[in-house]
Amino acid sequence: MLSKDYIVGLVDGEGSFYVHLNKDIRRRNKVELKFSLKLRHQDKHILEDLKDFFRCGNIHIQRDNRKNHSLCYRFEVNNKSDIINKIIPFFEINQPKIQSRKRDFELFKEIVLLTQASSLNLNKIQILKQQMHWGLAQYGKTVR
Q: What are the tens digits of pLDDT across the range 87-125?
């Protein structure tokens, strides 16, 4: 069984809180939420332990054809109910230690709360989303 501190360390190093705004009018879900963590294939058992710990999520293979990258697996939680009832409560109590990850979690949590409002404020969600993953902006990159 993984300890809470170990999980926080994993997420600090390899985790992500992610929001995607879906602009396709045919899609019902306008705000897609995701908590994920990616590890090399040799460490897949840790992702399985993480799935057991949270009692939710899925693990899938993520191939990367770049020369310096190896076969990886990704643990993902996309279910809004699981994010609200399992992921957010865990990280409210066991906050990430790295400031950028902690900031991403706080913005993610605020966006999740906005998705629960009676009227969806996509403009406010977009503004908050743009503040996430701020380290990438230094390199001219963004998260879609």
A: 999 999 999 999 999 999 999 999 999 998 878 788 899
CB contact at 8 A, 80 and 50: no
Tokens at 80, concatenated:
């809004």
Q: CB-based contacts of 37: which residues, under 8 Å, 6+ apart?
A: 10, 11, 14, 15, 16, 47, 50, 74, 75
pTM: 0.86
Higher pLDDT, 26 or 104: 104
- Residue 144 above 50 pLDDT? no
Instruction: Name residues whose C-beta falls within 8 Å of residue 121's C-beta, 6 or more positions apart in sequence.
Output: 114
Report how far residue 22's alpha carbon sits from residue 28's, in angstroms, rounded to the nearest whole number: 9
In this structure, how many other beta carbons lie within 10 angstroms of the beta carbon of residue 59?
A: 16
Looking at domain 4-137, which of 3.40.50.1860, 3.10.28.10, 3.40.190.10, 3.30.300.210 is its CATH number? 3.10.28.10
Residue the block writes with tokens 């306008």: 30
Please, are residues 64 and 93 in contact by the beta-carbon 8 Å criterion? no
